[in-house]
């Protein structure tokens, strides 16, 4: 295998993993066109780290320091933006397995995360997992939310809201890849309820003939020096947000 494929061999620096074999994820990728864009394939040049590192507050604090821009930025913003990316990457393999009918693990011990330069989470690799990932998703999300909250000085509840938006977005993306977004997003409520509080129930809205996540959270990306407000940001006035979503729907 070559870098960029699921089972590729990657050079491992200190604290990183080496070769990772994930045949079940390979099978999921074959069932879902465009898997590379969904975070199921590791791009060349990415560093691989065990996912349980994300549950270590000290490791997370070092990541936040490395990601800090030259202009001072509130640490809670850095933590929230980091979790916005990391949560999406963490939930992708088990949700993809659920959609594809090939169970992939949601346990941190069974996951490997790929980071691009700048400590940017880009993909995750998973071994085979339980038929239904709710219990393992809850344990993994709880562990990493606690670490991010401690490292970033942010409350846990907003981080759980980001997690539910990541779950909703990924189910929607995976449903589009599988050709049936309605069937995929129909799983969201039951899965979130099985995971349980404090994870909010995901919500969707149909605008202009396309389905979008109705966000429960703000990623705070616009508070970074080079950031901007997301199209679906809940901080936008409702009319403005709907107009932007209608424009986006015309591109689908």
Automatic annotation (TrEMBL):
Q: Name a Pfam family for this protein.
A: FhuF_C
| Gene Ontology molecular function: any one | 2 iron, 2 sulfur cluster binding
The record places domain Ferric siderophore reductase C-terminal at 215-235
What InterPro entries does the entry give? FhuF_C (IPR024726)
Q: Which domain of life is it from?
A: Bacteria
The name this protein carries in UniProt is Ferric iron reductase protein FhuF, involved in iron transport
Q: Which organism is it from?
A: Blastococcus aurantiacus
């Amino acid at each position: 295998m070559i870098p960029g494929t699921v089972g590729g061999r990657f050079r491992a620096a200190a604290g990183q993993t080496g070769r990772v074999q994930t045949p079940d994820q390979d099978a999921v990728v074959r069932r879902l066109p465009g898997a590379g864009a969904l975070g199921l394939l590791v791009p060349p040049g990415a560093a691989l780290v065990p996912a349980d590192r994300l549950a270590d507050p000290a490791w997370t604090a070092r990541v936040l320091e490395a990601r800090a821009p030259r202009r001072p930025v509130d640490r809670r913003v850095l933590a929230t933006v980091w979790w916005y990316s990391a949560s999406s990457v963490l939930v992708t393999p088990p949700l993809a397995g659920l959609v594809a009918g090939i169970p992939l693990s949601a346990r941190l011990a069974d996951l490997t995360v790929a980071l691009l330069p700048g400590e940017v989470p880009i993909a995750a690799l998973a071994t085979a997992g339980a038929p239904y990932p709710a219990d393992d998703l809850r344990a993994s999300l709880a562990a990493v939310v606690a670490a991010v909250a401690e490292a970033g000085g942010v409350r846990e509840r907003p981080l759980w809201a980001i997690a539910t938006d990541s779950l909703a977005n990924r189910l929607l993306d995976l449903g589009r890849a599988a050709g049936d977004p309605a069937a995929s997003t129909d799983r969201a409520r039951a899965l979130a309820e099985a995971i349980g509080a404090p994870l909010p129930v995901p919500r969707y809205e149909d605008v202009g003939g396309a389905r979008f996540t109705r966000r429960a959270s703000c990623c705070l990306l616009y508070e970074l020096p080079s950031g901007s407000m997301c199209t679906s940001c809940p901080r936008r006035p409702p009319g403005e947000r709907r107009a932007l979503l209608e424009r986006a729907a015309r591109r689908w």
